[in-house]
Design goal:
- This protein has 225 residues and is an alpha/beta fold.
- Helix content is 33%, strand content 20%.
- It is built from nine helices and nine strands.
- Helix 5 runs parallel beside helix 9 and helix 7 crosses helix 8.
- It starts with a strand and ends with a helix.
- The protein binds 2'-O-acetyl adenosine-5-diphosphoribose (OAD).
Length: 225
């Protein structure tokens, strides 16, 4: 079966990585405009690098959980397109191949001047030089608010060709990802939500399974394999 899966922060919560909108969410001590916009980065690059250095270290110390591992198993049995809003690499470390990081990746660096991208060092600083153009214009390769998510053309196409769309651990607050269920549903896909709490766009799904991802995802994958 052709399946498109969208994961969000909830799938990595049980690996110890904080979600965004929970009461202990990462944004709590930082205003979104300060750490997740290009204006914030221009204003205080030291703060923004420190924020992503902290998240990069947390991701490195985390390990994939049963939900990441189950999705890797699913790939052996079905034609799966795995899209994630997460910037950690827990899907890859669980063994998933070809993970589509629509919001970028903590382990990549990007040059704001020439567009070159390369593997990020664990600690980035405003003084780092781009290895291609030698300018001190390096930034985390993260899609900030107001910027265009990556790989959208490929994602829309997968949604249109899928029989099943599954959203896992995402609150449905951030577009365009929050519009994927509606888009896939209109093109004939069945839409399933696996989440701890109902998402903002729960009405766009045909079915919902509530519970922690480390339990619901392996059970659901077990039914399909
Ligand atoms: P949120 O923090 O908005 O939502 C996390 C979702 O995961 C919520 O619906 C929770 O109920 C659910 N959840 C929490 N723990 C869970 C568990 N153990 N098992 C299953 N579900 C669980 O995170 P996202 O929806 O991923 O964008 O946020 C989307 C985007 O907002 C992020 O990619 C980020 C942020 O701004 C960028 O950085 C561009």
């Amino acid at each position: 079966m052709r399946i498109t899966i969208l994961t969000g922060a909830g799938i990595s919560a049980e690996s110890g990585l904080a979600t965004f909108r929970a009461s202990d969410g990462l944004w709590e001590n930082h205003r979104i405009e300060d750490v997740a916009t290009s204006e914030g980065f221009t204003k205080d690059p030291t703060l923004v690098h420190a924020f992503y250095n902290m998240r990069r270290k947390a991701a490195l110390d985390a390990v994939p959980n049963a939900a990441h591992l189950a999705l890797m198993r699913l790939e052996g049995h079905h034609d799966v397109t795995l899209v994630t809003q997460n910037v950690d690499d827990l899907h890859e470390r669980a063994g998933s191949r070809d993970v589509i990081h629509m919001h970028g990746a903590l382990n990549r660096a990007l040059c704001a001047a020439c567009g070159h991208d390369w593997p990020a060092p664990i600690v980035m600083t405003p003084e780092d030089l781009c290895p291609a153009c030698r300018q001190p214009t390096t930034r985390p390769d993260i899609v900030w608010f107001g910027e265009m998510p990556y790989h959208l053309e490929r994602i829309w196409q997968a949604l249109e060709e899928s029989e099943l769309f599954v959203a896992i651990g995402t609150s449905g607050n951030v577009y365009p990802a929050a519009g994927f269920a509606q888009h896939a549903g209109r093109r004939g896909a069945t839409c399933l939500e696996l989440n701890l709490d109902s998402s903002m766009n729960a009405d766009d799904f045909d079915r919902q399974i509530l519970g922690p991802a480390s339990e619901t995802v392996p059970r659901w994958v077990g039914d399909l394999c």
